[in-house]
Design brief:
membrane; transmembrane helix; EcsB_ABC; ABC transporter permease; 2 domains; mainly alpha
Length: 404
């Protein structure tokens, strides 16, 4: 079997598949929103550097961020479920196929490495007047390569508890190494590097003593695709997406306990239960609320705060729109003797309630960060925006879905 040709075919098919959904992600309003977020972050970051407190732990922050990026090593091998049957007998002759996947995975992560190194460069030069940042980049790449090889070896091991504690230990040691370097603790830095090298050498030896776990490679690739599908599902229908559901009994009971058992409340119960149990809606929207709250807490300019707050409300609303058609592919839903207008009304009411909660949370943050008057002004602005988003924009979108 030609491993080079197999990799070429899998790689080409993967790129075409990803690009088909990427064009929806980077199209339209979301591109404008992302540009606005980048500009807002740049303004906040510049202001922070100009007023950098003397007590701010630059060394510790950079050490932690560097270590997190270095230990983040997802590996894409382009394997499929059927390979357990068709490729397993020939796995020893496919080393070239996996090595090409490793090269692709390492260089694919370069965007994250470049972003972190570029973003932390101003912070480094704002605190350290002397020092060679190019040497830091060199060390970063060496450490990254070490951990990347260790990650490839760890995919052969099946003891998840051992791997978890190993990763935690490596993070602590790697953070200590960086912190020692930034503090100019030369002897501690050398000891930390030697200790890190010994640990990684042991893990490499232990990992490569086992045969390649093809089933784990397939599972990892599937999880990576699922995460991408969940992102793409915010902008278009993704047929390949398998939704993960968590029971969350307490939250589900809180949201559905007061729903009356009558025909007109059918979709009220269904949508509330779906929102509470599906990671696609509750998980993503919760993370956006946290990120938005942190951003608002870091900004001390009212106009910029208003813009960022409205932007996050928009992103959360966009993320919740697919909830309307979440169950449309289920045939048993057609048995519901419920008017379709009730379905749309129920969804828009739920969306209004959820965005109202977000507005109140952001308003509270601004009242503490700025002034009560600024918070009230944002409350009025965000309420008007949320109403228009739900009853004009979202209503037109779901009406189009209902009519198609």
């Amino acid at each position: 079997m030609d491993s080079q040709q197999l990799f070429k075919e899998r790689f080409t098919a993967h790129i075409k598949h990803v690009m088909r959904y990427a064009q929806y992600i980077l199209n339209g309003h979301i591109a404008i929103a992302l540009i606005f977020l980048v500009v807002a972050f740049a303004v906040i970051y510049q202001q922070f550097l100009l007023d950098l407190p003397e007590a701010f732990p630059v060394s510790l922050v950079m050490s932690i961020l560097f270590s997190l990026v270095i230990l983040y090593n997802p590996i894409q091998t382009f394997t499929k479920q059927a390979d357990l049957v068709f490729l397993l007998p020939a796995i020893e002759s496919l080393k070239g196929f996996f090595y090409r996947g490793l090269v692709y995975s390492f260089f694919f992560q370069s965007y994250l490495m470049i972003m972190i190194l570029a973003a932390l460069s101003p912070l480094y030069h704002a605190r350290f007047t002397s020092g060679n940042y190019l040497f830091i980049i060199f060390l970063f790449l060496i450490f990254k390569l070490w951990h990347f090889l260790m990650r490839w070896a760890s995919l052969r091991l099946r003891d998840q508890t051992f791997l978890f504690y190993t990763k935690m230990g490596l993070f602590i040691v790697q953070t200590f190494v960086w912190y020692s370097y930034f503090k100019n603790w030369t002897m501690m830095f050398i000891i930390g590097v030697i200790g890190l090298f010994l640990i990684l050498s042991y893990l490499l030896h232990r990992g490569f003593n086992h045969s390649l776990a093809l089933d784990q490679l397939i599972t990892n690739d599937q999880h990576r695709l699922e995460r991408f599908y969940r992102l793409a599902s915010l902008f278009t229908d993704v047929r390949e997406l398998s939704t993960r559901v968590k029971k969350r009994r307490l939250l589900s009971r809180m949201l559905t306990s007061r729903v009356m058992l009558k025909q007109s409340e059918t979709y009220t119960y269904l949508y509330r239960l779906t929102f509470s149990r599906s990671e696609d809606y509750l998980g993503l929207s919760s993370r956006l609320v946290v990120i938005g709250g942190i951003a608002l807490a870091a900004i001390d300019q009212p106009i910029l705060s208003f813009g960022v707050g409205v932007l996050f409300i928009y992103l959360i609303g966009i993320q919740l729109l697919p909830l309307f058609s979440h169950h449309d592919t289920k045939l048993w839903l057609m048995l519901y003797p419920v008017n379709k207008q009730e379905k749309m009304r129920t969804f828009l009411q739920l969306l209004t309630a959820l965005l109202s909660i977000v507005v109140l949370m952001f308003t509270s943050t601004l009242m503490f960060r700025l002034t009560v008057l600024d918070g009230l002004l944002f409350l009025v602005l965000a309420s008007v925006f949320s109403y228009g988003f739900v009853w004009i924009y979202a209503k037109s979108k779901v009406s189009a879905v209902k009519g198609s």
